[in-house]
Design brief:
The complex is a heterodimer of chains A (114) and B (116). Helices cover 0% and strands 58% of the residues of chain A. The radius of gyration of chain A is 14 Å and the shape is globular. By secondary structure, chain A is mainly β. Chain B has 116 residues and is an all-beta fold. Helix content of chain B is 0%, strand content 47%. Chain B has no helices and eleven strands. In chain B, 36% of the residues are buried. Classes of the chains: A mainly beta (114), B mainly beta (116). At the A-B interface, β4, β5 and β9 of A face β5 and β10 of B.
Chain lengths: 114, 116
């Protein structure tokens, strides 16, 4: 069964600290992996998209890594800010159909305290 | 900033009423989607469209219906709302980018529906 599991479910850190969020997936055949940021009451916004051949990608203070062999990804946030408080969603796409089916994780709820 | 818009943002309505959630995008994307999201849960695909006059049901069974008469417009309708329909509804669009499906997925701000 194709699944996306994220950990931790929630995380509280102090402003200025770094943190790493995890994503494990069983989706096959793999096409790409995306990380989204979703502020409370808003729609998700894309942070990164990585294909099979990419193992790291950065977007400002956000750095995503991908290990396609172990089917794991991580999102590292550097020097956290209050505005980083949000849910971070891992999404994996397969290429088994023309739809390019997307599998969503439940997200990690990050809270940054001053 | 994504050019995809949803209205209304919030709606509180009584049981049995008919409602339409509007979604429009100005990016010329062929693919459009409706997702349902409950607190702490993953997004579930309820409808999608590959283009004008093309609509399909998603993975999550839904009593809602959709139409795609124009490329930019993808409204979702509930003929008779029930409390079980209370949820957040997210509209999204993407361009077709080959079999790797690496097209960026743009989301609207969502419509929060509460049925009393």
């Amino acid at each position: 069964k194709n699944q996306v599991e994220q950990s931790p479910q929630s995380l509280i850190i102090l402003e200025g600290k770094n943190c790493t969020l995890q994503c494990n997936y069983t989706v096959s055949p793999f096409s790409n992996l995306r990380w989204y940021k979703q502020d409370t009451g808003r729609g998700p916004v894309s942070l990164t998209i990585m294909t099979f051949s990419e193992n790291t990608k950065s977007n400002g203070r956000y750095t995503a890594t991908l290990d396609a062999d172990t089917k794991q990804s991580s999102l590292h946030i550097t020097a956290s800010q209050l505005s980083d408080s949000a849910s971070y969603i891992c999404v994996v796409s397969d290429r088994g159909s023309t739809l390019g089916r997307l599998y969503f994780g439940r997200g990690t709820q990050l809270t940054v305290w001053p | 900033e994504a050019d995809i818009y949803q209205t209304p943002r919030y709606l509180v309505i009584g049981t049995g009423k008919k409602i339409t959630l509007e979604c429009s995008q100005t990016m010329g994307h062929d693919k459009m989607y409706w997702y349902q999201q409950d607190p702490g849960m993953e997004l579930h695909l309820i409808h999608y469209s590959y283009g004008v006059n093309s609509t399909e049901k998603g993975d999550l069974s839904s009593e809602s219906t959709v139409s795609r008469i124009r490329t930019e417009h993808f409204p979702l309708t509930l003929e008779s709302a029930r409390p079980s329909h209370t949820s957040q509804y997210l509209c999204a669009s993407s361009e077709s980018v080959g079999v790797a499906n690496t097209g960026e997925l743009f989301f609207g701000e969502g419509s929060r529906l509460t049925v009393l």
